[in-house]
Design brief:
The chain has about 190 residues and is α/β, with parallel strands linked by helices. It has a single domain (about 5-190), classed as Rossmann fold. The chain has seven helices and five strands; from the N terminus they run E-H-E-H-H-E-H-E-H-H-E-H. The chain has a five-stranded parallel β-sheet with strand order 2-3-1-4-5, with helices on both faces. The longest helix has 20 residues, at about 60-75.
């Protein structure tokens, strides 16, 4: 399929608890309300299909993100538009997506670690382990191990900012509606030019 008819991909990245999943779902709802067909791929969900018993090691994460980007690239080649929801803490992960996807943009949802920890502490068990940050901080302080807890972004592993990110939203103090408004304004402009 030619580049001119390929779908686009928008990757929403950031720390756990930054608000990226809430933003991705809000963008999806808004796009669907406009009659635009968009698929949402969440890394936390896809990882379980790539690795049924994930360990969240750096090697496993690298492989999972390659598989994730390749899956999105195949959908885009079929003409599908894709929202990507995944932390993608290494700049190289997003660079790989830029190489594979001709119509690609990144939104980095920036959030102070303390606020991300506060938000994440209210999350119930789901795609991601509940109490992720508290357990990681406890492990760092005492050495206590928690089954299924791998490296945690923001505690064990730093998030690498990408200077090529098309949009950076500091979501530390914004409401979900304000964050969504910024993302949709960007998306409208970006889609008019890709």
């Amino acid at each position: 399929m030619s580049e001119s008819v390929s779908g686009w991909a928008l990757w929403i990245v950031g720390l756990p608890g930054s608000g990226k999943s809430t933003l991705a779902k809000g963008v999806l709802t808004s796009m669907e309300a406009r009659g635009l067909e968009v698929a949402l791929l969440q890394m936390d969900e896809r990882r379980k299909s790539y690795f049924p018993h994930p360990h969240y090691t750096s090697e496993e994460r690298e492989k999972a993100y390659v598989l994730f980007v390749n899956e999105v690239a195949e959908l885009a080649r079929q003409g599908k538009n894709v929202l990507m929801d995944g932390s993608a803490y290494k700049q190289s992960m997003r660079q790989y997506a830029r190489q594979k996807l001709p119509r690609f943009a990144e939104i980095f949802v920036q959030c102070d670690l303390s606020e991300a920890i506060r938000r994440e502490s209210d999350r119930s068990e789901g795609l991601v382990m509940a109490g992720l940050y508290a357990k990681a901080l406890q492990r760092k302080k005492t050495g206590e191990q928690f089954e299924g807890l791998g490296e945690v972004l923001g505690v064990d592993v730093e998030f690498e900012m990408d200077p090529e990110a098309e949009l950076v939203i500091d979501n530390t103090r914004l409401t979900a509606k304000e964050t969504l408004g910024k993302a949709l304004h960007f998306l409208d402009t970006w889609l008019a030019n890709v």
